[in-house]
Write a structure and sequence with these properties.
Elements (H helix, E strand, L loop, with lengths): L1 H22 L3 H55 L6 E19 L2 E21 L4 E6 L3 H19 L6 E8 L13 H13 L7 E3 L2 E2 L5 E2 L4 H10 L4 E5 L4 E12 L2 E12 H8 L3 E5 L2 H8 L1
Parallel strand pairs: 3-4, 5-8, 8-11
Antiparallel strand pairs: 1-2, 2-4, 6-7, 9-10
């Protein structure tokens, strides 16, 4: 049995050798095969180079895509963070205390007499797209007097309305008959804040009303001077209502009292505290309301 198997295997081996000898390629076939192999190697090399270039292109495109994504993100952030310029306008008349200077000859000297009188000035605001500037235009020239009040008014108005004014210019125009002393400039702060808020929110402000009072960044309305003179000016200009700070709710009035000391008559001026609202309404004839904060201003002015 084993001999038969070995004989078969031997026969198969002989036949395979005969086939391989007969199938052995010629030199021509070998050359053709080498040429094909060379061509395939060249093609493979070119394809490898192309793949490499394509990979570089892909990396380059990916890098550019990341760059454009960053630029787009930056632009979106810039667009989101850069407010659209706002527009608006408003105007009101404001009372002020002007200083009238008279020179009186009192030989051999000349003395100066300063009289404070109430007057009305026109204040308007224009809000338009810009660079976040706060500008003050005054006649006569006294911009320094109102610049701090304008800055505070713009800041407070932005805080109260929640609107970003960094993309807008706020231009105040103030037209007065006389030059306003620097000490009285801040007293228009509350009214200037009202103008900005009114312009931004398109509020209809009462034209028969005026007001006086400083304002701080939190909207607190503060004390002013010359309240009686300002009330008189408001009345003379046809106003029906004047808003004054609650801190000005008391006036000091001097009452003359006569006393006799051992046959000698002495007249004394005794200070007496009175309510400002009652005094103005009774003696000047204009309605008065006290304001302590900007919410009070909006309550009476709109």
């Amino acid at each position: 049995m084993k001999s038969k198997i070995l004989a078969v295997l031997l026969l198969i081996s002989i036949l395979m050798n005969i086939y391989l000898i007969q199938a052995q390629p010629s030199s021509k076939d070998l050359l053709e095969m080498k040429d094909k192999i060379n061509q395939l190697e060249i093609t493979n090399s070119e394809m490898s180079k192309q793949i490499y270039r394509d990979n570089l292109s892909i990396q380059n495109y990916a890098s550019q895509l990341d760059l454009y994504r960053e630029k787009i993100a930056g632009l979106e952030e810039k667009i989101n963070n850069t407010p659209t310029g706002l527009s608006g306008a408003a105007k009101l008349e404001a009372p002020a205390v002007m200083q009238k200077v008279d020179y009186i000859e009192d030989y051999p000297f000349v003395r100066q007499q300063i009289t404070e009188i109430g007057s009305i000035m026109n204040i308007s605001v224009e809000i338009k797209p810009g660079k976040g500037r706060i500008l003050v235009d005054t006649k006569p020239l006294m911009g320094v007097v109102f610049q701090d009040a304008a800055n505070t008014a713009a800041y407070t108005a932005q805080k109260k309305t929640g609107k970003d004014l960094s993309g807008s210019d706020i231009i105040f125009s103030i037209d007065a008959t006389y030059e306003v002393p620097s000490v009285d400039g801040p007293s228009a702060g509350a009214l200037m804040t009202l103008l900005v808020v009114g312009g931004l929110n398109n509020l209809e402000l009462r034209k028969d009303m005026t007001m006086t009072g400083t304002i701080d960044k939190d909207g607190h309305v503060g004390e002013i001077g010359g309240v009686i003179e300002k009330a008189k000016a408001a009345k003379e200009s046809g106003k029906n209502l004047i808003l004054i700070p609650g801190e000005n709710s008391r006036l000091i009035q001097y009452i003359e009292k006569t006393r006799n000391y051992y046959g000698i008559t002495v007249i004394e001026r005794v200070p007496e505290t009175i309510d400002t609202k009652d005094y103005i309404e009774k003696n000047i004839g204009i309605n008065v309301e006290y304001i302590d904060n900007f919410d009070d201003v909006l309550k009476y002015a709109t």
